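FW: tagging you since you asked about this chain on Friday. Here's the raw sequence from the shared folder, copied in full. Didn't touch anything.
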Amino acid sequence: MNWSKEDTILAVIVIGTLMASIDSTIVLLAFPAMTQALHSTIANIIWVILIYMIVVAVFSTQFGRIGDIYGRSKMFNLGFIVFTIASFLCGIAPTVVTLVIFRAVQALGGALIASNSSAIIADTFERHKIGRAYGFTGMSWNIGALLGILLGGIITTYIGYRYIFFINVPIGIVAVILGLKYVKDKNKTNDKLDLPGMVALGAAIALISYAGINYASIGLTSSNVLMLILGIIAIFIFIIIDRKIKVPTINFTMFKNKIFRNALMASLFQGLGFMGVTFLLIMYLQGVRGYSPLDAALVLFPGYLVSGILAPYMGRYSDKFGAKFISTIGIVFMALGVLFYLLVLGVTTPIYYVVIGTIITGFVGAMFWPANNSAVMANVQGQLRGAASGSLRLFGSLGLIGSFIIAFVAAALAVPRYLAFEIFAGTSKVIGGIGKGFVAGMHMAFIALIAMLIIAAIFSFAIGEENRKEEFKNTEEKSVKD
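HL: got it, structure written out here
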C-alpha cells in the first residue's frame, strides 16, 4: 500500500495521542520516587496527576473553538511545542510546587493537541474512512497508556523519575517538525472569540472539578460546597451569555443532531464508568495484594494489549456498519467485565481472575472509542469540527474526573483518605482485616460504575443508524433526522 500525505498526517496525530496517553499514566508509578526526591507528601504529589486532569477539562472546548477560528493545525502544532517545552521543565522541576505548575503548562499543550486532533482527522479523511483513522488513534491511546505504566516503572527504577518527562522531548521535536511540514488547515471561520463565554465556562468547569476532587481528597467541607455552588452559578452565567451572543463558545445547534448529542453523552458516562475501574484495580493490587507498582502494571497488561490490537479493525467496522452497534457492544463488554470483578474479586482471589477481567474490559477501548469518536466527528460541519472535537474531549475529561471521585470516595468509606492516596501511589498497603473492608467498598463502587456504563450503553444505542458514504452537507438538516 502506498504511503500518502493523509497517512503522514495520521502518523503525526497518532504520535500526539501516544504522547498524551503516555503522560496520563507514566506518573502513576513514579509517585514514591517523586515524593522522596522532592521531600513532599503523597497528598501534594497526587496533584501532579490531578492538575493535568482539571486543566485538560477546563480548556478542551475553548481550544477547539480557537482552532476553528485561527486554524487547527496552528493550535495543534503550538500544543506540541508547549507540551515538549513543559515536559523538559517538569524534568528539571526542583520542588513539588514547580512540578505541579509545569504539569499544568504541559496539560495546556495536551489540551491543544487533543482538542484539535480529532477535527484534523475529520478534515483529512472522507466520512466513510474516518473510523479507520480513529481506530489507529484508539490503538495509540491504549498502547501509550500501557507504555506509560511500563516505562514509568522501568525508568523510575533504573534511571530516575525525571526521565519520564525528558522522554517526551525528542519525540516532541520530531512531531513538531512533521506537523509544521504536513499538517495544514482546510477549514477556518472568520468568527470572533466569545471571551466572556469562555471565561464563564472555564470557571464553571474548574470550580466544579476542583470541588469534586477536593471532596474526594478530604471529605465534605464548606469550601468545596462553596466552589460547587459558584461553579453551578457560572454555568447559568455561561448559558445567559451564549444565548445572547452571535457566535457562542459552544454552538448548541450541534446538539440538535441526534448522533452527535447521544455520542457525547455516551462518552461522558463511559468515562464515568471506565476509569474508576482502573483506579480501583491499581489500589486493589497494590494495597490489598501487596504488588509493586510495576507488577500491578504487568497484571493490567493484557487488557491494553487487546485494545491496542483490535482498535484499528473495529474502527474500520464502524465505517462499514456505523457506530451504533460497535460502540454499544464495547460498553456491554466493559459492564460485563466490571460485573465479573464484582462477583469474583476478594482478598485472596487468584490473580489470573484479574487478568481475565482486563481482557474482557479491553474490548471497550477497541470498540467504543474509535466508533464513538467517528460518530461525533462525521456528523458536524467542517467549520464546527474544532468545537466538536473540544466538546468530545471535555465530556471525556469530565467522565474521567467523576470516575476518579467515585473510586476514591468508595475507597475512603473503608480506609482513611490519606491511606487511600498512599495505596494508589504504591507507598502503603492495608493490613489485617482492613482488606475485607476495602474490598467491600470497592464492590460498592463497582455497582455505581456499572450503573454509569448501563446509561452509556443506552445513549450509545440511541445514536441510531448512519450512512457515512453519503456526502455531508448540513449537519442539522441533512446528516440525521431527529
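FW: The chain has two domains: 5-194+247-461, 195-246.
HL: agreed, and Confidence is low (pLDDT under 50) at residues 471-482.
FW: great, closing this out.
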